[in-house]
Amino acid sequence: MFDAFDADRDGYLERQDFEALAARWCRMPRVAGEPGLAGRVESVMLGWWGHLAAAVGPGGDARIDMDGLLGVVDRLPAVRAETMATADVMFDAVDDNRDGRISRTEHRRLIDAWHGRPVDTADVFDHLDQDGDGCLSRSEFAFLWTQFWTSDDPGDPGNLMCGPLGTEEA
User: Fold this and answer.
1) Exposure string for 62-87, b = 16+ CB within 10 A, e = fewer
2) 93: how many CB neighbours lie within 10 A of its CB?
3) Which class is 2-160 in CATH?
4) What residue spans define the domains of the chain?
5) Which listed residue, of 52, 79, 80, 81, carries a Cα 20 to 30 Å from 142's Cα?
6) How far is CA 86 from CA 2, 43, 154, 167, in A?
7) How far apart are CA 62 and CA 48, in angstroms?
8) Which residues form the EF-hand domain (predicted)?
9) Is residue 115 within 8 Å of 168, Cβ to Cβ?
10) Which of these, 86, 97, 73, 104, lies nearest to 25 by C-alpha position?
11) Are 78 and 61 within 8 A, CB to CB?
12) At residue 162, what are phi and psi to the nearest 5 degrees?
């Protein structure tokens, strides 16, 4: 997760890293075609930057290292409503055809946008699609997204939401 956020790979998270993440998401097909959705995506991404920056101290020029990020992630179970709201925006961003379901292909776009490059997804989607119907409903997506951010159990399927574990370069 840290490496996906750290766009310039300098070992710190800064506002410009979250701006780069928002820009990647805003290039997704549906988001690029809907200015209102693009605004929601940007608001969510920069809103999380605001949470991180506020958690490590005052000032707009915060630099957050891995420990700082983990400190905020440890507090996410207490802000489930905000995490769920993020899931709703991300679902809309990924649901290219607006059918109310995330397909394997749409999920693949999520992973690539998250990492900023193509990632081998292997059988990740099969682990996420718990009912085997070939898609993720909005409620399934929200559950898995929240699990990704709040679970301490590496075996929980939600931990694969943004790609296989260990996909980033050292």
Assistant:
1) bebeeebbeebeeebeeeeeebeebb
2) 25
3) mainly alpha
4) 2-160
5) 52
6) 18, 10, 21, 23
7) 13
8) 1-28, 82-117, 123-151
9) yes
10) 86
11) no
12) -105, 25
- Match 């949470």 to its residue by tokens: 51
Local confidence pLDDT in tens for the 170 residues of the chain: 788 889 899 999 999 999 999 999 999 999 999 999 999 999 999 988 888 888 777 655 688 889 888 888 887 777 777 777 889 999 999 999 999 999 999 999 999 988 888 888 878 999 999 999 999 999 999 999 999 988 888 899 999 998 887 644 43
Burial of 108 (0-12, 13-18, 19+ CB in 10 A): middle
